[in-house]
């Protein structure tokens, strides 16, 4: 990610860093592009400088990989981790070989875990202590997770004369890629009752036209639509039709060939489409000596390079949240399905995908005997938000 210098932060962002207390739970909410991850990193650096121990967690391994270089740039004395890694490690500190109860694999049963704590069934409870926990993309965590943290924060045998553990949460409930296992802002506030809420509202990531398209898919969640920075001009996003998949992906290669100092992300609906895309674009990219990389699962995370030019990164939509690229291509629209039952969720998915792009965005489809179903969900040409080239 591009980490701005502290001097480049906005007045609103700087106000948060200067005002948010270090001894109280803090919630910072804001739409895409408002700099929540940047603020999370700088807050962690400030805590480090004052000698506090910091745990920095997020939901996905890919996002963890994405921020790793920024952690190094700020010379922070902590590693970013996935929430699974952190919560299972915390439980082992207090329970040894006794496993964290689960509803299903990798989904902790936090209500049962709370009962174990309350009933004295945790053998080394005082070891389940942290000093300051920073959570990025906090809407991705189940609400019971926050209740679990609150219970631990107020458990006397955990405190043992130490300061109350603190949490800082950055969240946007508009950015959800799954229909369940999420938390709303209200859920977080209800389960962390002493939390102080702050807001960031100005979008510094997306060009004006891309921000306008993203707002088209806004479904009314409390975080709201960001204010667009007045200087963010740019090209109107476009929708294109191609005869073949090879033609569709050649357009990606052509764009990178003309802009090889910029980053390219391709977002796809699932692994089946991802494999088809990668197999087709690889020979096209090889002719230009471009690198193609894909992220399919956690085991791929350490191989992903976000910083080398002339690279095309192919990710599934569920993995794209928190990332950003100079250009984003969303091909094979015919593979996206929507109906009345999940219309709002589809819009939320589009909201997240569109807002990954800084300056260029292209929707496309190919090999279709009729227009994809999802075109009905896109802005019409008359609305002048999306350029239709079909």
Q: Which helices and strands occur, and which strands form pairs?
A:
Blueprint: H1 11-19, E1 26-29, H2 36-49, E2 54-58, H3 61-73, E3 80-82, H4 83-95, E4 102-104, E5 107-108, H5 110-118, E6 132-135, H6 143-153, H7 156-159, E7 166-171, H8 185-191, E8 196-199, E9 202-203, H9 208-216, E10 227-228, E11 238-242, H10 245-258, E12 264-268, H11 271-287, E13 291-295, E14 311-316, E15 325-330, H12 343-354, E16 357-366, E17 387-389
Parallel strand pairs: 1-7, 1-8, 2-3, 2-6, 6-7, 9-10, 11-16, 11-17, 12-14, 12-15, 13-14, 15-16
Antiparallel strand pairs: 4-5
Helix pairs in contact: 5-6, 9-12, 10-11
Overview of this protein structure:
With 390 residues, this protein is an alpha/beta fold. 34% of the residues lie in helices and 19% in strands. The chain has twelve helices and 17 strands. The chain has a seven-stranded parallel β-sheet. Strand 2 (54-58), helix 3 (61-73) and strand 3 form a beta-alpha-beta unit.
Gyration radius, rounded: 22 Å
CATH class of the largest domain: Alpha Beta
Helix content: 25-40%
Structural class: alpha/beta
In short, what is this structure?
With 390 residues, the chain is an alpha/beta fold. It has 2 domains: 6-200, Rossmann fold (3-Layer(aba) Sandwich), CATH 3.40.50; 208-389, Rossmann fold.
């Amino acid at each position: 990610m591009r980490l701005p210098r502290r001097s480049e932060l906005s007045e609103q962002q700087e106000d948060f860093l200067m005002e948010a207390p270090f001894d109280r739970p803090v919630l910072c909410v804001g739409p895409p592009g408002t700099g929540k991850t940047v603020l999370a990193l700088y807050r962690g650096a400030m805590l480090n400088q004052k000698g506090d121990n910091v745990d920095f967690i997020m939901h996905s391994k890919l996002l963890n990989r994405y921020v790793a270089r920024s952690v190094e740039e700020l010379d922070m004395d902590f590693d970013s981790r996935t929430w699974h890694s952190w919560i299972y490690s915390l439980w082992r500190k207090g329970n040894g070989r006794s496993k964290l109860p689960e509803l299903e694999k990798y989904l902790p049963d936090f209500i049962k875990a709370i009962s174990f704590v309350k009933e004295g069934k945790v053998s080394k409870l005082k070891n389940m202590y942290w000093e300051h926990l920073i959570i990025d993309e906090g809407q991705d965590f189940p609400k019971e997770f926050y209740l679990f943290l609150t219970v631990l924060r107020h458990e006397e045998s955990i405190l043992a004369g130490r300061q109350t553990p603190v949490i800082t949460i950055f969240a946007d409930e508009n950015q959800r890629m799954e229909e369940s296992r999420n938390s709303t802002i209200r859920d977080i506030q209800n389960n962390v009752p002493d939390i102080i809420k702050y807001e960031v509202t100005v979008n510094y990531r997306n060009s004006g036209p891309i921000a306008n398209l993203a707002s088209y898919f806004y479904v009314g969640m409390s975080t709201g639509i960001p204010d667009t920075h007045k200087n963010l001009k740019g090209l109107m996003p476009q929708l294109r039709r191609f005869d073949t998949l090879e033609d569709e992906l050649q357009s990606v290669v052509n764009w990178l060939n003309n802009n090889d100092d910029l980053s390219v992300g391709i977002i796809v609906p699932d692994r089946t489409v991802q494999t088809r895309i990668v197999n087709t674009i690889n020979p096209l990219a090889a002719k230009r000596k471009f690198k193609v990389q894909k992220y399919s699962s956690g085991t791929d995370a350490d191989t992903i390079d976000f910083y080398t030019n002339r690279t095309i990164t192919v990710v599934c939509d569920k993995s794209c949240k928190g990332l950003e690229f100079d250009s984003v291509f969303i091909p094979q629209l015919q593979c996206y399905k929507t109906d009345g039952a999940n219309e709002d969720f589809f819009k939320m998915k589009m909201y997240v995908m569109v807002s990954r792009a800084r300056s260029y965005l292209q929707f496309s489809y190919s090999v279709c005997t009729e227009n994809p179903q999802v075109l009905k969900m896109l802005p019409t040409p008359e609305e002048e938000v999306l350029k239709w080239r079909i």
